[in-house]
Amino acid sequence: MKANRMEAFSDGVLAIIITIMVLEFKVPEGHNWHALFALGPKIVSYIFSFVYVGIYWNNHHHLLHMVRKMNGQLMWLNLLLLFWLSLVPFTTAWMGESRFAATPTALYGMILLFSAVSYRFLHLAILKQHDASFAAAIGNGWKVKLSPLFYLASVGTAYISTWISGFLIVLVAVMWLVPDKRIEHAMGDGG
Amino acid sequence: MKANRMEAFSDGVLAIIITIMVLEFKVPEGHNWHALFALGPKIVSYIFSFVYVGIYWNNHHHLLHMVRKMNGQLMWLNLLLLFWLSLVPFTTAWMGESRFAATPTALYGMILLFSAVSYRFLHLAILKQHDASFAAAIGNGWKVKLSPLFYLASVGTAYISTWISGFLIVLVAVMWLVPDKRIEHAMGDGG
Amino acid sequence: MKANRMEAFSDGVLAIIITIMVLEFKVPEGHNWHALFALGPKIVSYIFSFVYVGIYWNNHHHLLHMVRKMNGQLMWLNLLLLFWLSLVPFTTAWMGESRFAATPTALYGMILLFSAVSYRFLHLAILKQHDASFAAAIGNGWKVKLSPLFYLASVGTAYISTWISGFLIVLVAVMWLVPDKRIEHAMGDGG
Amino acid sequence: MKANRMEAFSDGVLAIIITIMVLEFKVPEGHNWHALFALGPKIVSYIFSFVYVGIYWNNHHHLLHMVRKMNGQLMWLNLLLLFWLSLVPFTTAWMGESRFAATPTALYGMILLFSAVSYRFLHLAILKQHDASFAAAIGNGWKVKLSPLFYLASVGTAYISTWISGFLIVLVAVMWLVPDKRIEHAMGDGG
C-alpha cells in the first residue's frame, strides 16, 4: 500500500513539473508569427524536458512495480530523484532563455546527470530486494548505467559546442524511448 | 493497472492545465468594474479553454475505458496529446491578451487541431485492440474525424475574421457537449 | 467507478486552487516585520479563501457519496462548480491587493455566490436520483438554500461597508463549519 | 474510505507545495556560473523546505494509517496543518531572497513551528481514537513534542545569529530523518 502512495505522490510531482514548465512561456510582445518565433529556443527546450520527464514517469512506473517492501531508504532515494527532477523547469527556462549558451546547457546536462544517478541508486536499492537471478535478468540494465555517462559527456562538451551536448542528450532519449522489453517480460504482464 | 496510472497522471496534468490558466489573470490596476472589464477578452479566452479541457477530460475517460492492454505506444500517444494540451494555457493567454488578433487566434486553433489529431491517433491505436464489429459500432466516430477539419478551417479563417474562427471552434464544443451515446451503450454501463 | 474519477479530478483542481493562491504573496520588499505586515490584507484574504475551498472540498465529498449513477449532466454541473471556484484565487488576490475596496469585495461575494448556486444545481441533480423520502431527509438543506442569499447580500452591502460584506461571508463559513449531521446520519457511516 | 480521500487531497497539496517553490527561481540575468551562484541562498532555502515537506509527507502517511474513524475535527486539523505548510513556499522565497536576514529567518522558523504544533494537535486527536496502551506505545513521541521547542528556539535565536537558527532547524530534520521504528513496529507492517 505504501508503494502506491509513493507512486501517487511521485506522479503528482511529475505531473506538476511537466505542466508548470509552460508558465515560462511569457506572452509574446507582438501579435504575429515573428513574435512567436522568438520563443523558439524556449519551445525546443520545453520539448526536450517534456520528453525526459515523460521517460522518467514511464520508467519510474516499471521500477516501482518491482518494489517488494517499502522502507525509509526507498522513500528518501525517491525524494532525491524528485528533487533533481524538480529543478528541470528552472534549467529548461534558463537554457531556453539563453538560446543554448554553454553554461545553461551544461547545467541542464548536470541536472539530468544527477537525476540519472539518483535513479540508479533507487534502482540498486530495489534490486537488493530480489534474488540474484532476478537481478541478473533485470538489474544490469545497460541503459541505467549508460545514461549518466552520456549526460556527463554532454556537460563537458557544452563548452565546445552545445550542438554536441544536445546530440548526446537526444541519444539518451532515443535509447529510452525503445521500451525495455526485459523488464516487461520478467514481470510477465507485458508492461 | 497501468491504464489506471496513465489515467491518474493524465487527470493530474489536465487538472493543472485547467487551473494554472487562471494565473494569467493579473490583478487589475484599478479597483472598479471598468478595470475588471479590461480583462474581458482574457476571461472569454479562459472560458473557451476551460470547456475544451473539460471535454477532453470527459472523452479521455471514455476512451481509456476501452483500453484492453497498455503498451508503450499508447503511453507515448497519450503523452503527445498531453503535450499539445499543455500548450493551451499559453495560447489562451496570448489570444486573450491580443484581444483575438488574427495570429494568436490562428495559433489557438492550431493547438486545438494538433490536440484533436493526437486524440485521433490514440483513438485508432485503442480501436486496434478490438475486433472489427466493436470498431464498427464505436470507432468511426464522426466527431473524432470532423473536429480536426473544423479546427483546420478555424486556423484559415482567422485571417479573414476571428469571429468566423471563434464560431467554428464553438461549433466543435457544441458537438462534443452532446454526450456520445454510442460509446456509453456499447460499454453497457451508461457512461 | 466514474464518480471516483470525477472525485479525484475535483480534488486535484481544489488542491491546486488552494495552493496557487499562495503564489500571489510576492516577496516583501524589505526584510523586516513592517514589510511583512503590508501583506496583511492579502493574508486575511487568503485565510478566507482557504476556509471556503476547504468547506467546498468537505461538502463536495459528502455530496458525491450520494451519487448513484454518473452521467454527463452531473459531470458538467461539477465542472461549472469548479469553473467558479477556479476564479477564487483571482478574486482573492484582487480583494487583498485593493485592501478590501468595494468592487473587488463585491466580486469576491459574486464568485462565491455563483459557486454556491452551481453547488445547489449539482445538489438538486443528485437528489433527483433518490426517492422523495431520502430527499426530504437530506435534500432541503437550509444551508445550501441559505448560503446564496447571504452571498447576494454581501455583494450588495459591499458598497455600503465591506465590513458588513465580510461579516455576512464569515457567517456562511461559520454555518458550514458545523458539520451537517443529517447527511452523516442518513448515510449511516458517520461521515 | 474518507481517510483515503483526505490522504489523497493532502498528498496533492504537498506535491504542489514542494513543486511550486521552484517557480521562485527566476532565470538568472547572465549566462554563466557567476549568475547562477547569485541564486545560492534561494537554492539552500529550497533544499531545506524540500526536506521538511518530504518529512511531513512521510510522517503524515504514518499518522493517517492510525486513523480509525474520520470526522470533521480531523479534517479541519488536517486543513490547519496544510494551511501552515502552504505558507512554506512564501517564507522559503523571502528567506532566500533576503540571504537569511533575521526577520525572514525568524518567520521561516515560526511557520515551521505552527506546522509542528498543528501536527501535534492532529496527532493527539488521532491518538484519542486508540486505547491507552497503544497511545503509550506510540503517542508520547518525543519527536512530536520536541520539534516545536526547537523551532521556537530557532525563532528567538534568529536575531542573535541566523546560523544558530539554521543549526536548530537542521537538528529537527536530522531527528526526523531517522525513521520512527516504534510506529512501524506497532503497526506491524514495517511500513
Description:
Four copies of one chain form a homotetramer. With 191 residues, chain A is an all-alpha fold. Chain A has one domain. Helices cover 77% and strands 0% of the residues of chain A. Chain A contains ten helices and no strands. Chain A has helices at 2-20, 33-37, 40-65, 72-86, 88-97, 102-127, 132-139, 142-157, 162-177, 181-187. In chain A, helix 4 packs antiparallel against helix 6 (102-127). The longest helix of chain A is centred in the N-terminal third of the chain and has 26 residues, at 40-65. Chain A is globular. The model of chain A has no long low-confidence stretch (mean pLDDT 85). Chains in contact: A-B, A-D, B-C, C-D. Chains A, B, C, D: Belongs to the TMEM175 family. Chains A, B, C, D: It catalyses: K(+)(in) = K(+)(out).
Low-confidence stretches of chain A: none
Quaternary assembly:
homotetramer
- The SSE order of chain A reads HHHHHHHHHH
Distance between the termini of chain A: 20 Å
Number of strands of chain A: 0
Outline:
Chains A, B, C, D: Its main location: membrane. Four copies of one chain form a homotetramer. Chain A contains ten helices and no strands.
Question: Which helices and strands occur, and which strands form pairs?
Answer:
The structure is a homotetramer of 191-residue chains.
Chain A (H helix, E strand, L loop, with lengths): L1 H19 L12 H5 L2 H26 L6 H15 L1 H10 L4 H26 L4 H8 L2 H16 L4 H16 L3 H7 L4
